C-alpha cells in the first residue's frame, strides 16, 4: 500500500427554494497530525450535536479544536490513519500517551497504566463503528485481541481498547462515534474495577 490519498468531502444543503445543492466539495478543513504518535492523522469529516440531528444549512461542525468523543446526544465521523507500532512508540510511558489523548481533546479517555496490554488503551462512553478501509489492524481488549483485515467492522460499545498496527504498513480506518450512556450494571461494574487496588 502506497501513500494514503487525501480525503475528499462533499456536503449537500438546500437553497432558499428548497432545491438540493452542493454546499461544499473538496479537501477536509480539519486534518490533524498527532504529535505524540508520529504518523497518526485525524481527518475530521462531520459531526452532529443533537438527536434528532438538525437538518439544514448550518455551519461546518468540524472547524475548531479536535475532540475525541462525539458531542453529547450527537455523532462524529472521522477517518484515522494509523502507522505501524514501533519499539520507540511502545516504550512511551503512560504520561506520554495521556499527552497524546490531550491533543485529541480527551485526556481522561486514556486508561493506560502499568501492565496495560497496549500504550493507547482508552475508553469513551459511546458506541463506535470502526471500519478498516485500507491495511490491517489488531483490536486490543483487556484480555483478548482480534486481527482485522480490510473491510472488517468493529462495533465498539464503550469498552477499554486500543488499535495496534502490527502490519508494518499504514492502516486507514473510518469511525462513526455515537454518544452513549452506560447501562446501570455496566457503570457499576466499571466503578468496582476502578476501586480495586
UniProtKB/TrEMBL annotation:
Pfam families found in the cross-reference section: Cupin_2 (PF07883)
Coiled coil: none
InterPro entries to which the protein is assigned, alphabetical: Cupin_2, OryJ/VirC-like, RmlC-like_jellyroll, RmlC_Cupin_sf
Range of residues in the leader sequence: none
Family matches, as SUPFAM superfamilies: RmlC-like cupins
Domain Cupin type-2: 112-176
UniProt cross-references to Gene3D superfamilies, sorted A to Z: 2.20.70.150, Jelly Rolls
Protein name: Cupin domain-containing protein
Provenance organism: Pseudoduganella lutea
Phylogenetic placement of the source organism: Bacteria, Pseudomonadati, Pseudomonadota, Betaproteobacteria, Burkholderiales
Amino acid at each position: 500500500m502506497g501513500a494514503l490519498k487525501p480525503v475528499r468531502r462533499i456536503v449537500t444543503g438546500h437553497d432558499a427554494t428548497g432545491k438540493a445543492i452542493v454546499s461544499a466539495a473538496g479537501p477536509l478543513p480539519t486534518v490533524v497530525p498527532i504529535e505524540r504518535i508520529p504518523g497518526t492523522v485525524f481527518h475530521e469529516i462531520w459531526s452532529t450535536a443533537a438527536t434528532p440531528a438538525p437538518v439544514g444549512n448550518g455551519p461546518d461542525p468540524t472547524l475548531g479544536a479536535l475532540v475525541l468523543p462525539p458531542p453529547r446526544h450527537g455523532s462524529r465521523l472521522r477517518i484515522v490513519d494509523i502507522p505501524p507500532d514501533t519499539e520507540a512508540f511502545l516504550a512511551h510511558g503512560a504520561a506520554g500517551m495521556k499527552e497524546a489523548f490531550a491533543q485529541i481533546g480527551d485526556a481522561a479517555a486514556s486508561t493506560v497504566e502499568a501492565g496495560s496490554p497496549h500504550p493507547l488503551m482508552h475508553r469513551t462512553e459511546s458506541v463506535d463503528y470502526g471500519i478498516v478501509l485500507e491495511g490491517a489492524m489488531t483490536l486490543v481488549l483487556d484480555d483478548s485481541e482480534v486481527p482485522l483485515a480490510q473491510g472488517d467492522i468493529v462495533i465498539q460499545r464503550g469498552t477499554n481498547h486500543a488499535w495496534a498496527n502490527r502490519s508494518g504498513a499504514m492502516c486507514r480506518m473510518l469511525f462513526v462515534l455515537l454518544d452513549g450512556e452506560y447501562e446501570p450494571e455496566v457503570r457499576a461494574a466499571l466503578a468496582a474495577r476502578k476501586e480495586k487496588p
